[in-house]
User: Fold this.
Amino acid sequence: MRWLALAGALLALLAVPVSDANFNSRSANIATVTAASATQYFHIYSKATLPPPDDGCWLFQYAPRRGSNPEVLAASGSDRTLSVHMGGWRGQDALARCVTAIRAPSTFPDGVTQITLHTRIAADTATGRSPITGASFRRVNSLTNNPTVTLTPGQQVSLELDIDLNPGYSPANRLYTQVVTVWATWAGNDDDFFAFDIPVKVYDGTGPGPN
Amino acid sequence: MRRGQIIGLIVAAVLGLATAAAGALAADDPPHIQRAAAASGALALSNSREGAAIFAAHDLRPGDEISGTLTLGNTGDRTGRVLLSRASLVETPGLGGGKLSDVLTLRVEDITSGVPADVVTGTLRGMQNVLLRDLPGGATRTYRFVVGFPDGGPGGADNAYQGGSVRMDYEWLTEAIAPAATPTPRPAPKPPVAKPV
Assistant:
């Protein structure tokens, strides 16, 4: 029976945990952050990327890249990929209709019921010149342009640009790039954070100009 | 079997059962206090949000600030040295290429006493390893993480960060502090032996 007692004592020893050794203990957590975005409140489209229904420009066509043959439209892409090349405008002083379409989503987040769109234009950084002299919004089925416009969910407007190269600059045949910024505000938010910066090229010459 | 042997067997069996019972009781601890390591009694870290998010901020805008808290505890009986370490940082740049980790601020506060005491303040990217106050056995500390998105001002200063996202994985590492060595007592000097006259 001696072996039974020994076995019992051994079992008891195995059940007692090892003590007094230093050992590392560790615990883990995560943390995540996501920033808000203008895409939650509006999108900017070219004709090719505008989801249906395409309301078109009512009485007008989407702005072409002036001087292109075959004719191509000035805007391509959408939102952050949107880019615009207006082509050659030397000797022209006019309003370019329907450069892009701007549409609000079917709902706004956080209980927002309407947004107001604004624009600003930056001069060409290389020269300080501004062939693009103005930016405005026009509602579908309207002939009235305004510097700001209010959108409710699902509404659409077009962005239109005043370009003045009459007379053009010296020397001629220069390509200018200006940034047209469109941003949204609403009640309780007057920050210009919710914005798209649209690069717009204008060629001070005839023909489509360089890319 | 002799009587003494039987008694020895019974004692051994009782010892083994008692130890097993203690382990079973430990498994019934409240789920929100998770033990990160099996306790020997020396040192064991508890975390009120073990494995979970300290905070999850969505749609952060310039000027916004969000926070999350957790309580860390030492359920052992040995004082532990505690290191807060950022194990990883993974992010997706914003629509304009801006990285949130470059501009977001992080402030970690010890709010155990009710009066916030700054532990570390800086950018989200800058905080990697922070040595915290030693945690005695049986003690708990509550920490608050505060993340801010500074407003860069008008003119589109912050637009590049739109839609950006960042995830941080943090680890709390603790090591038991070895107790001071107990000096070996010197034997008392022997009294002189009187020589017989």
Remarks:
- The helical segments of chain B are 3-26, 100-103.
